[in-house]
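Figure 6 in text form: structure in, sequence out.
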């Protein structure tokens, strides 16, 4: 069994504007609907858990989408808190070995082939797997608006979502990071903290997370194509 967990309790501060970015539309649908549909369309995915902010007035109230259950819970102050809340609210036992796909609600352009590759990698590996891509640009360390150094790019990847782990292992890893007061910005970092080495699955560069208005224009283009 595979479940999707979508952290969707952010406020979109870098985007700005009156509503959180996951509810902005691209190609006729809110970003969160694109993200949910991409996961629920996969035949192996049984349902989705969405973590919303306590004062969310924009959630459309879906209890199912594409014929599969959509459950919801209240998220937390940081992305990792929202993911942990989602994992704990899933049906079944918190320590079970359900495969979970954690995916940003603001990442609308996930393609089926990437999801297939991720699931295949994560199922065969107790450390789990994430989608990502190698860095392509030259990297500069900056200080006061000037270049301090050119950093080696070899071996550096960008981390995308979905990130796929066994529910029990990821819950324990995120709880450990929270107890230590460490804010992790993705699920893999929590697994790395407890000594695991999740697999990197190279995915499409156009699986973008909408962070700024320019990203929304790009998402509109990609989803409309
Ligand atoms: N998220 C969440 N709970 C939080 C913070 C973020 O569920 N406390 C979710 C966002 O809704 C988004 C995903 O995590 O789907 C990725 O986070 P990010 O891109 O940082 O979104 P925001 O936190 O909303 O944006 P910003 O950091 O610019 O405020
Ligand atoms: Mg954020």
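Output sequence:
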């Amino acid at each position: 069994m595979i479940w999707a967990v979508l952290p969707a309790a952010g406020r979109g501060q870098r985007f700005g504007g009156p509503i959180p970015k996951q509810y902005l539309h691209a190609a006729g649908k809110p970003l969160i609907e694109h993200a949910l549909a991409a996961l629920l369309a996969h035949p192996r995915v049984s349902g989705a858990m969405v973590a919303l902010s306590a004062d969310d007035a924009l959630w459309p109230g879906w209890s199912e989408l594409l014929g599969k259950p959509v459950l919801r819970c209240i998220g937390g102050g940081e992305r990792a808190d929202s993911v942990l809340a989602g994992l704990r609210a899933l049906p079944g036992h918190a320590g079970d070995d359900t495969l979970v796909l954690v995916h940003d609600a603001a990442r609308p352009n996930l393609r089926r082939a990437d999801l297939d590759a991720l699931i295949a990698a994560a199922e065969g590996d107790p450390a789990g797997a994430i989608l990502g891509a190698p860095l392509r640009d030259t990297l500069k360390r900056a200080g006061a608006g000037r270049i301090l150094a050119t950093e080696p790019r070899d071996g550096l990847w960008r981390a995308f979502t979905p990130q796929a782990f066994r529910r029990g292992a990821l819950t324990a890893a995120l709880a450990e990071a929270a107890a230590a007061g460490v804010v992790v910005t993705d699920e893999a970092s929590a697994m790395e903290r407890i000594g695991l080495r999740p697999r990197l699955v190279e995915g499409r560069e156009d699986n973008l997370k909408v962070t700024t208005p320019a990203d929304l224009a790009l998402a509109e283009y990609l989803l409309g194509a």
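Caption detail: Residues 7-15, 20, 22, 51, 75-79, 82, 104-106, 209, 211 surround cytidine-5'-triphosphate (ligand 1) (CB under 6 Å).
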